[in-house]
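Lecture notes, continued. The same structure-token format from the folding unit now serves as the input rather than the output. Read the line below as a description of shape only.
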């Protein structure tokens, strides 16, 4: 090494400068980068929050509920505890939403979420999993399910308190279905959530504003109900609903006075289904008016060839009576079939009277103005009051078959029939007795008063073809036009 100082060579200087530059610029870049990373983290957190929670209420959403429930199940099982999944659905929320504004609907949902959240124990999950559906998941000691009952009753009561929105107070109720998962069970979150959903559906069906626990029997019931719904939807288009006819007879003279049309449906997959089963479902899924229209259209054609003294009675659902155009629609069917309105009788059940009575009254009047008669069916089973009966201009009342069929064995039935007769006489209303099953019942009814009647004693409901054959034998059939079936009513029927 020489003793002369040799200054740093160029290479070293550039490396140092580069290092200094890197430190200076790198630091700035580092700071920029850290800022960017923080921004991205914030955005990601926000996005995750949005995808994991419900934007309106801040609860968990459907997507995240299952995973969170699985975690809760694992933790509870490790402690030897059971888990309850509570599915909650606001009753008639659609009406609240439609009847007020969507802002009111949103306010109700937020308030419901708030009240549910406040009433849940620490560690419980709360999710909004659909429009008006919430789910709560919580652990409980397996031997103390009553703790869950108490909690859920509290949740129902909390949601039932009126919600103030602007000037008005809105009241909603909630139905709840509960399913439990015991430690050691192989059910995962999806299975328990599904069971709770089935139980919730059951709670709604039993009458709203209540809760019930899942029971495996509910599953098959729900499956049958779904099959019924889809069967009805398909059946309408395929013209599977057909009219049958049951004789109406004057009890004094035994003379045939007409027929009541009764809907019959044989589902290709489920077999014959009673109207008592399919009519309420068709009402709920909004198909009853279409089915009824098809049936009446066909019935008017069938009845056109009957002797003109014979009447035709048809049953009408309360849903149809709510339609302001119902009388017009009926008139159109009568005109199309060229059937005289004074031979048509509409039967409405007492449950119609629970609806808007003013609307029912104006509907009855407008039907009567067209010459159609209106009778009150299944009388004695509902809650119509004497004053309602007086204020509504019915042409006839029909005593429910449950009283007539038991008139011989049950003194209560006999008393009820006697009071209905007195009522009918007082109001000047003729009476029909349904459910005359045998000669003894007929004899007893004839002792009680003079009626029209129907029942298995006179004949079971029969197809149009069998009715026609019988009328031909009685010489009560006219030579009629060739057409025997209605034009297809529904657009899909036309395509079929
Ligand atoms: P409803 O209008 O009271 O009809 C009389 C019911 O009593 C019919 O049952 C008939 O088969 C039955 N019945 C007749 N005689 C006797 C008897 O001697 N003993 C007994 N135990 N029963 C007798 P169905 O056909 O099963 O109809 C049940 C109900 O379904 C009807 O009761 C009516 O409310 C409803 N329904 C039937 N067809 C229609 C329809 O086209 N539209 C609507 N909305 N409802 C309908
Ligand atoms: Mg009837
Ligand atoms: Mg009846």
């Amino acid at each position: 090494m020489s003793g002369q100082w040799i200054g740093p060579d160029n290479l070293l200087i550039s490396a140092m400068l580069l290092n200094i530059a890197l430190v200076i610029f790198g630091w700035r870049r580092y700071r920029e980068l850290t800022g960017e990373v923080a921004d991205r983290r914030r955005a990601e957190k926000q996005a995750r929050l949005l995808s994991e929670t419900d934007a309106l209420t801040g609860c968990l959403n459907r997507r995240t509920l299952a995973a969170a429930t699985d975690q809760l199940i694992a933790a509870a099982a490790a402690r030897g505890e059971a888990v309850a999944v509570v599915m909650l659905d606001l009753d008639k929320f659609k009406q609240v939403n439609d009847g007020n504004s969507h802002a009111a609907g949103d306010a109700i949902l937020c308030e419901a979420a708030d009240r549910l959240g406040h009433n849940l124990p620490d560690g419980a999950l709360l999710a909004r999993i659909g429009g008006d559906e919430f789910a709560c998941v919580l652990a409980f000691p397996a031997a103390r399910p009553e703790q869950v009952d108490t909690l859920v009753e509290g949740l129902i009561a909390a949601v039932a308190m009126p919600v103030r929105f602007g000037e008005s107070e809105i009241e909603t109720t909630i139905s709840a279905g509960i399913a439990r998962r015991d430690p050691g069970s192989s059910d995962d979150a999806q299975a328990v959530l599904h069971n709770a959903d089935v139980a919730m559906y059951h709670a709604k069906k039993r009458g709203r504003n209540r809760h019930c626990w899942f029971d495996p029997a509910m599953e098959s019931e729900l499956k049958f109900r779904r099959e019924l719904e889809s069967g009805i939807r398909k059946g309408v288009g395929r013209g599977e609903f057909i009219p049958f006819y049951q004789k109406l007879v004057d009890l004094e003279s035994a003379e045939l006075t007409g027929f009541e049309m009764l809907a019959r449906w044989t589902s290709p997959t489920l077999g014959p289904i009673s109207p008592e089963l399919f009519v309420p479902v068709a009402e709920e899924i909004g198909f009853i008016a279409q089915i009824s229209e098809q049936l009446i259209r066909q019935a008017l054609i069938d009845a056109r060839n009957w002797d003109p003294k014979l009447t035709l009675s048809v049953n009408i659902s309360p849903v149809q009576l709510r339609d302001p155009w119902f009388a017009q629609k009926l008139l159109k069917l009568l005109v199309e079939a060229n059937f005289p309105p004074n031979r048509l009788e509409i039967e409405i059940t007492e449950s119609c009277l629970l609806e808007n009575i003013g609307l029912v009254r104006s509907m009855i009047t407008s039907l009567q103005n067209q010459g159609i008669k209106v009778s009150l069916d299944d009388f004695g089973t509902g809650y119509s009051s004497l004053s309602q009966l007086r204020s509504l201009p019915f042409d006839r009342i029909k005593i429910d078959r449950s009283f007539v069929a038991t008139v011989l064995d049950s003194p209560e039935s006999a008393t009820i029939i006697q009071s209905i007769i007195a009522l009918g006489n007082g109001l000047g209303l003729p009476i029909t007795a349904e459910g005359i099953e045998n000669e003894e019942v007929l004899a007893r009814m004839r002792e009680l008063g003079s009626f029209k009647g129907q029942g298995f004693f006179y004949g079971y409901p029969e197809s149009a073809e069998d009715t026609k054959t019988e009328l031909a034998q009685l010489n009560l059939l006219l030579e009629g036009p060739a057409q025997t079936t209605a034009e297809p009513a529904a657009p899909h029927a036309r395509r079929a």
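Point for the exam: DSSP finds 18 helices and 18 strands in the chain.
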